Amino acid sequence: MKCEARQSISQSEFDDFAVLLTFESGTIGTFVTSAHAGWSYPFQRLEIYGKYSTIAVEDMEKVIYAPGLKRGTEENDFKQSSL
C-alpha cells in the first residue's frame, strides 16, 4: 500500500488523497479523493470496477449497478427513503 496526501486548499488538514493498493494476486486498487474537486452534483461518488461490471454510489443516496456486458443497468434511489 502507498498513500500520498496533501493540503491543497485547507490550512489545517489534508484535503487531497491518493492510495494505491497492490494485492498478493497482483490485482491493484486505487482510491483518489479531493475535497475541492468540484461543486456539482453528485458531490460524492464512489465507483468500483470488476470484470465487465461496475457499481457506483452517489452521495450515499443512489446506487447504480451494471452487472455485465449486454445487461441492463440497475439504479436504486434512496433520497426519499425513511430509514
Let me know the largest β-sheet.
4 strands, antiparallel
In what range is the share of β-strand residues? over 45%
* Number of beta strands: 7
First-last Cα distance: 36 Å
Low-confidence stretches are none
Topology record:
Layout: E1 2-6, E2 16-22, E3 28-34, E4 45-50, E5 53-58, E6 62-66, E7 74-77
Antiparallel strand pairs: 1-2, 2-3, 4-5, 5-6, 6-7
Question: Explain this structure to me?
Answer:
The chain has about 80 residues and is mainly β. The protein folds into two domains: about 1-35, no CATH class; about 45-83, no CATH class. The protein contains no helices and seven strands. The protein has strands at about 1-5, 15-20, 30-35, 45-50, 55-60, 60-65, 75. The chain has a four-stranded antiparallel β-sheet, with no helix packed on it. Strands 1-2-3 form a three-stranded antiparallel β-sheet, with no helix packed on it. A hairpin with a 7-residue loop joins strand 6 and strand 7 (about 75). It is flat and about 45 Å long.
Please describe the structure with a list of short key phrases separated by commas or semicolons:
83 residues; mainly beta; 4-stranded antiparallel beta sheet
Sum this structure up briefly.
By secondary structure, the protein is mainly beta. It has strands at 2-6, 16-22, 28-34, 45-50, 53-58, 62-66, 74-77. It has 2 domains: 1-35, no CATH class; 44-83, no CATH class.
